[in-house]
Design goal:
Chain A: Belongs to the binding-protein-dependent transport system permease family. The complex is a heterodimer of chains A (about 325) and B (about 290). By secondary structure, chain A is mainly alpha-helical. Chain A has 16 helices and no strands. Chain B has 15 helices and no strands. Classes of the chains: A mainly alpha (about 325), B mainly alpha (about 290).
Chain lengths: ~325, ~290
């Protein structure tokens, strides 16, 4: 408190007046807003506390953003720093549009993300409604606990499980095929099986965990609504249609908009583990391309430019979808 | 209450469907476990179709656990999970407290700086260049410093602090507590549930990360466990696996891989039952915030 008062002495007369004789509430009393400088002085411990946080954001978030814009217009050479490298204007953008990989990479990214969205969206909602309607309390809790487990596994582990299921030599699926007299199949090297396996395993990992947001919404529904509906003779399907669906619609809209907003994040980490040369034509997305081109082949400028492109479009998508989420469901990410 | 026939049918249908989904969530793990315990001999004898091994063998586990790299990587994973989460919580709660003070001049600009990073990221290559510039390539600290503040968690904690009863913070101010005393004595204890949830998610994140280590580290002695496991799993017939599967031994490469998966899941499975409810609460907190 005393620190707050000290710098004010003799700074500006207008501020010093109301505080006189009552230093503890200087600035709060007299209904008058203290000057900006005075308020900054009052809060200087807070600014000091914020310095490390700000430093983190500047160094690890804003510096890379600045570099992204600079590198996109430069030819970054190995060994020389970013700022010594020569400017090349729009050359990187030209190279990208002329690159033979890019059309395929972009269409893969869009196709895989849309598939993910379409296949991954409804199952958790259905599962959440079934959980909500289950009349057995204890069994329900056990089943929930079990179905959440895969969410906590890393993609490395999920890949291991997929390998255990689909590998040629001893994968469960192939063992079943062999047991029933069919030929074993190289699922993991077959590009037409890549996407079903990718999206299926992602669904396996997240189906349970994704129910939680819907269950949170359903838990706020008044149980009396259901009781009244039963008395009025509404069967389970009618209750679902008239009570359950309307209660989770805002959340469903919200989740849909947010997922659309992050559409371009096609799950590069998962694909990087799951793909191989045999399925590359169906599997290569922006994230994996940037990783290979940038860090394996050291084409920093090209890779950074594609990454920048992705971020800009991603930002536009998130902003648009957040706008619609707010409009349609009454809430957004911010 | 639900006595009619349609109610009973409905209950039976949803129970069957849910149980089927849960079985498909759990069965793959049990199969992996079974495979990891199956030796070469039994595999041949039963024509490669084994779900429950009749003569379980722990040979694959023994082979994995003698590797010094596994133990080293376990230590590194523990380090990044504990130190990474601890420092992250410290900075995030400080940031959240500062930004929760409504009268702070410049608060909106500071808040914008934080939120903007959720919406726009620079991408892999520029971040890599910065880490390189800072001399953090081949340093475990890169894996800690990159996640020093959790922007989304900061927003959740900030709202949690703002929703605390006004009287508590005011009382602290009237008693003449300094900002740091307020933070340590009042805000942190009251925001503990939010901090715990965000800390747990951060632990899981750190424990499961492998891609950042692959990008920023070259020295295998610094690899976290998931990256070591990844290398074991994807090394189809390469030297890494071959050196582990010695000729004529009783272990198949598949059972080695499956044992690797179990070793990777075990730490999570051991703590999960105790922490499950906190995780769920954490999601509720985020969901309420929206």
């Amino acid at each position: 408190m005393s620190e707050a008062r000290r710098p004010s002495a003799g700074k500006t007369a207008a501020v010093a007046v109301p505080g006189v004789g009552n230093p503890g509430t200087a600035g709060l009393s007299a209904g008058r807003k203290p000057s900006l400088w005075k308020r900054i002085q009052q809060h200087r411990t807070l600014y000091l506390l914020f310095i490390p946080v700000l430093a983190y954001f500047l160094v690890f978030k804003y510096w890379p953003i600045l570099l992204a814009w600079v590198v996109a217009f430069k030819e970054l050479q190995l060994g020389s720093g970013v700022f010594q490298s020569p400017w090349v204007g729009l050359q990187n953008f030209k190279d990208i549009f002329l690159s033979p990989d890019i059309p395929n990479v972009i269409s893969n990214t869009i196709e895989i993300s849309v598939l993910r969205l379409v296949c991954g969206f409804l199952p958790p909602i259905i599962l959440a409604i079934m959980f909500h309607d289950m009349a057995t309390r204890r069994l329900k809790r056990w089943l929930q606990t079990l179905v959440y487990i895969p969410h906590f596994f890393s993609w490395v582990i999920v890949f291991g499980v997929v390998f255990g299921f689909f590998s040629v030599g001893s994968g469960f699926v192939n063992n079943m095929l062999a047991a029933f007299g069919f030929d074993r199949h190289e699922f993991l090297l077959d590009s037409s099986w890549f996407r079903p396996i990718l999206i299926g395993s992602a669904l396996w990992k997240e189906i349970g965990w994704s129910t939680i947001i819907y269950l949170a919404a359903l838990s706020t529904v008044d149980a009396q609504l259901y009781e009244a509906a039963v008395i009025d003779g509404a069967g389970p399907l009618k209750r679902m249609r008239h009570i359950t669906f309307p209660s989770i619609m805002p959340v469903v809209t919200f989740v849909l908009c947010i997922n659309l907003g992050f559409l371009l994040n096609a799950g590069g980490e998962q694909i990087l583990l799951f793909y191989n040369d045999a399925v590359l034509d169906k599997a290569d997305v922006i994230d994996t391309w940037v990783y290979r081109e940038g860090l394996a082949r050291l084409q920093f400028s090209l890779a950074a430019t594609v990454g920048l492109f992705q971020s800009v479009i991603g930002l536009a998508l998130v902003v648009i979808c957040n706008y619609f989420a707010k409009k349609l469901s009454g809430r957004g990410i911010w | 209450m639900y006595k009619s026939r349609s109610e009973k049918t409905y209950q039976i249908v949803i129970h069957v469907l849910v149980i089927l989904i849960v079985i498909s969530a759990v069965f793959p793990l049990l199969y992996v476990l079974g495979m990891s315990l199956t030796g070469q001999v039994e595999m041949m004898k039963r024509n490669y179709f084994v779900i429950i091994p009749h003569e379980p063998t722990f040979a694959a586990y023994e082979r994995i656990l003698v590797s010094p790299l596994i133990w080293k990587s376990f230590g590194i994973s523990v380090f990044r999970s504990v130190i990474g989460t601890g420092l992250m919580l410290l900075l995030t709660v400080v940031g959240a407290y500062v930004l929760s003070v409504r009268t702070l001049p410049g608060r909106n600009i500071m808040l914008f700086l934080v939120v903007a990073t959720i919406l726009f990221n620079a991408g892999l290559i520029p971040t890599y260049l910065v880490v390189k510039e800072l001399g953090l390539i081949d340093s475990i600290w890169a894996l800690v410093l990159l996640y020093l503040v959790d922007s989304f968690g900061l927003l959740v904690i900030k709202i949690f602090i703002e929703n605390l009863p006004d009287g508590l913070i005011e009382a602290g101010k009237i008693d003449g507590a300094s900002e740091i005393q307020m933070l340590v004595r009042i805000v942190v204890p009251l925001a503990a549930p939010a901090l715990a949830a965000i800390g747990l998610f951060s632990m899981v994140f750190h424990w499961n990360s492998w891609f950042d280590a692959m990008v920023y580290l070259n020295d295998a002695n610094l690899f976290p466990m998931q990256l070591i496991l990844k290398n074991m799993l994807t090394a189809a017939s390469s030297d890494a696996m071959q050196s582990l599967v010695i000729n004529g031994s009783a272990i198949t490469p598949e059972s080695m891989k499956m044992a690797t998966v179990i070793v990777g899941t075990l730490p999570i499975l051991l703590v999960y039952p105790f922490l499950q409810k906190y995780f769920v609460k954490g999601v509720y907190m985020g969901a309420v915030k929206g």
